Every structure is written in C-alpha cells, then in structure tokens.
Amino acid sequence: MLHTNDPIIKHKVGLLNPAEELQNISKACQVMGLSRETFYRYKQAVEDGGVESLLNKDRRKSNPKNRVDERTEAAVVQHAIDYPAHGQARTSNQLRKQGIFVSWSGVRSIWPRHGLACFKKRLCVLSKKK
C-alpha cells in the first residue's frame, strides 16, 4: 500500500491503492472514473521510479536562445531602477542610444523576471534602494 501527503499525486496513489485492495483493476478504475490505460501508466511509473515519479513533469524545454545576454539584462534592470517612469519603448530607445540593442518586447519580458513589471513595482525598488 502506497502513502503520500503530497496533494498533487494523492489522487494518483488513490487509484493504485483500491486496485490492490479489490484485486480488480477494472472495478477500481470505474469507481475512480479513470481508464485502465491510465492505471497501468501510473503503475509503471511507480515501478520505475517510486511514488515521486507520479509528479507532473514539465514537458516544455527551456529555450535560452530567446533570452538576452546577462549584460543587456543588467542594463535593462538598471535603467528601470534609475528611470521607473520610462515605459518599455522609451527604455528600449534610451538603451539603443547607449549601444545596447533590445526591443521593447524584450524589455517587457525582462522586467517581470526581476519584479519590475509595472510602474509601482519599479518605484518600490527605487525607494528601497535609497
């Protein structure tokens, strides 16, 4: 009998345990409202890697090609802190004058990663810095 307190995989383990107790996989799947194919997929995952393997895995691979380099990102963040009232387009234009080429949409994607997505957040960072 399998036990877990993790709410993400609790329902998956909840399918495997009644099937063991009832000795009838079809009945357990019918009660839980899942297909037998799903049951066997869960069972195989537990046999291969234990209960932890039932966690949902992110199938998307990260795409670092879409990110700007660290120097550009640091310049965007520094500009946002120095000039919190500047928007994405103005920030992009000002940095272009300094020789740092980043599009306004690039600026828009950098700011949330550093908690600078909106004007109020940029002001908060500026006030904490002073």
Overall number of strands: 0
**Largest pleated sheet:** none
Rg over C-alpha atoms, rounded to the nearest angstrom: 25 Å
Percent strand: under 5%
Helix content: 55-70%
What is the number of helices? 7
Distance between the termini: 58 Å
**Could you name the ranges where pLDDT drops below 50 across 5 or more consecutive residues?**
none
Q: Compute the number of structural domains.
A: 2
| Quaternary structure annotation | single chain
Order of helices and strands: HHHHHHH
Q: How does the helix and strand content classify structurally?
A: mainly alpha
What is the global morphology? elongated
Mean pLDDT: 85
InterPro entries: Homeodomain-like_sf
Pfam families: HTH_29 (PF13551)
Protein name: Winged helix-turn helix
Structure explained in plain terms:
By secondary structure, the protein is mainly alpha-helical. The protein has two domains: 7-54; 64-129. The protein is 63% helix and 0% strand. The chain is built from seven helices and no strands. The chain has helices at residues 7-22, 25-32, 36-49, 70-82, 88-97, 104-113, 119-129. Helix 1 packs antiparallel against helix 2 (25-32) and helix 5 (88-97) packs across helix 6 (104-113). The longest helix is centred in the first third of the chain and has 16 residues, at 7-22. The protein starts with 6 loop residues before the first helix and ends with a helix.
